[in-house]
Amino acid sequence: MPGAQLHQAMTANSIDLALGSGTDFQFIAKGAPERGVAAFAGAPINLAILVRMDGKITKVDDLKGRVIAVSTNGSLTYWLTTELSRRLGWSGADALKPVATGALEAQVATLLAGNVDGVAGNIETGYRLEAKGQAKTLVPFGKYINPFITHVIYATNNMIQNHPEDVRGFLKGWFETIAFMKSHQKETLASTMPITKLDEATAKKVYTELMPMFLDNGRFDPKGFAVVEEAMKASGVAEIPPKDKLYTEEFLPK
Q: Rounded to two decimals, what is the model's pTM?
């Protein structure tokens, strides 16, 4: 679900907890009645720019001025694409041009049809397309954008105020699961491969690359959050609220 819809549902109290992106703090800054209760992923090593296998883009510099499919305007993939341009020193005609095309399936279809030059998507999709000879992962965003807080668990103010033990219990279970996954590769792959549809060799590769990004304790790294604040400003947030209005660490496991 796109970030805007996710936080609309939070505002309507249709859902109590949500797994969102670090850039979603912009919705709290704009009035969404919620707070972040745990950071669960650091630098965005799970996301990358994917390009066609038979195209002429073979290195990062080949991306100058290219059109990149992203999910929605203002989304995490939108910001990552524009931030990558900034960090590479590209501007004007050289800057990457994000275009919102919806869900990842639509982004990939647009890429394979030749209507865009790249896709800001997850590396699992890149490896899956690579196995089919269709596309490949060119550059992980985490190579250039680090530190950062890529993913966050959010809770509505209603949950925080009226059901604090439920929030605390959810986070306890979450981080126990992360700890299990990090120490039990075989069992983790057995449960995730039917969902990811990856072959065993690729699934092991993804596991090795991605598990380090998952945080063990949920704490908000100050340096990573400083970059999140820059992303909020880029999304149009004129005044960043105090940190205690954006997130709390009181429910994290001791």
A: 0.94
